[in-house]
Amino acid sequence: MLYPQRFSQFTREHADTVAAISCGLLLFLGWFALHLGWLGLAFLLLPAAYVIGGYESAREGLTTLFKEKELDVDLLMIVAAIGAASLGLWRREYHLIIDGAILILIFAISGALEGYAMQRTERSIRSLMSLTPDTARVLLQGREEEISISQLKVGDEIVVKPGELIPTDGIILSGYSTLNQAAITGESLPVEKTVGAEVFAGTLNGYGALQIKVHKPAQSSLIQRVIRLVEQAQTEAPPSQEFTLRFEKGYAKVIVVAGILLATLPPFLWGWDWETTIYRALTFLVVASPCALMAAIMPTLLSGIANGARQGILFKNGAQLEKIGKVRAIAFDKTGTLTTGQLQVFQVIAIGEYTQADVLKTAASVESYSEHPIGKAIVQAAGETVRVLAVPVESKLLNPKGDLDLVGAIQVQAIPGQGIVGIAQEQEIIVGNAIFVQQYVTNLPEELREMAQSLEQEGKTVVWVAKNPTPNPSPLARRGAGEVMGVIAIADEVRSQAAATITRLKKLGIEQIVMLTGDNEETAQSVAKAVGIDRIYAQLLPEDKLDVIRRLQQKYQTVAMVGDGINDAPALAQASVGIAMGISGSDVALETADIVLMADKLEKIAVAIHLGRRSQSIVKQNIVVALGFIMLLLVGNFLGNINLPIGVIGHEGSTVLVTLSGLRLLK
Question: Does residue 72 carry a catalytic annotation?
Answer without folding.
Answer: no
